[in-house]
Amino acid sequence: MHDLKQVAAASLAALKEAGADKAQCTARCTETHEFNVDGGKFSLFRTLFDNSLALAAIREGRRGTVSVNRFDGESIRQTAENCLAVAASGEADAAWDFAPETANASFTDGAPEADLDRLFDRTEELMRDIGARHPKILMEQMIVAHKKVTSVYENSLGAAYSRLYGCYEIELMFSAHEGEKSSSFFGSYVCTDSLDAPFITLGSIEEDLANVERQIDTVPLDGKFVGVALLPPSSLGEFLGSLLENFAGDSVLLDGTSLWKDKLGQRVADPRITLSAAPLDERIVCGERYTGEGYPSENYDVIRDGVLESFMLSDYVSRKTGLPRAKNASGAIIMHSGDKPLSEIIAGIERGIWVGRFSGGEPGTSGDFSGVAKNSFLIENGKITTALSETMISGNLAEILNNVVAVSRETVADGSSVLPYAAVGGVTVAGK
Q1: What is the pLDDT of residues 103-118, one digit of tens each?
Q2: CA-CA distance, 155 to 25, in Å (whole number)?
Q3: pTM confidence score
Q4: Does domain 2-213 have CATH number 3.30.2290.10?
Q5: Domain boundaries, the chain
């Protein structure tokens, strides 16, 4: 950490010498220990080291950014000069700035030191558990890793942070096979700072494996209907990400195309919907502690009880639009749970579809979406029935947020988000 502080100090000095009026630097070292499993067998163990140095400078209202992976003095000097050259080629804009001096801090969190023996044991255990519980699953790829990150942020206005953190990541890509038949592929991800629990119990790994095993034999949907889409956390996260980008993000507020641009303080969703950006929540593993602009991260509500409380704006777009800056830039989304168990929600759906994942184009600023419901099931008369093949779904993001049928009591925490199961109406479901 001491070396990174020296790198940061040298970088700021080089930027000032090159002509910066204001400057910032982020220096980061990442050490990764990674196991790979391919085709059900260990195929690789490796240790990776990565250095990154990101410099930003403002001169006469023009901003430049450059990143490199070297920390030596000559590289710092050359990168600083390149950063000012990039700034000189841009247009002046008074909205560019960095965070002023704040309550500067040092953070240590997660599991910075790897327990590789236990990590290997847990990985072997996961392979055994999958083989015993889900024999039809073919693990196309499994990557299990520990990441240790040390970083320093400093800017010329006095803001400074240092951080040391570590976590374990489990990434799975798999499909189910029986003879010549196979399911569509699916992926699961979990980030954790503890090796106390078997990996198969974390996040939605067990449920994902079981669902994919049931998707070997699929049938096309006959006809078309407007009904309920039951979104598990895997697809709910996709839809929420698109929704927030299209209605609450930088680009749509900057160009004025957001449907929510005049909706702060107004209801935009069902009152049961509360969405928070909360990197400091204990269920978020190694969440953001400061933004890329140098502000300390705080939790905040984007939507509370259906009312739009905040946009998700960077400092730059906040200055351009006059709207409040978001209190973090983490993407750590938490949707508050509801009051119904999932089994009761399913029992109340007369006709609908379970959407494991969504494959389609990114919705436009209108919120209209259309694509294929992958890893999906038909829901009829309160029961999950047939696995479906290539079924189309369409609707509007803004409308389904107001057509909430139910939100589950259960949630899935994968270390990067905490999401329930949500049943939404007004979705068109069409077969071939």
Answers
A1: 689 999 999 999 999 9
A2: 6
A3: 0.94
A4: yes
A5: 2-213, 224-430
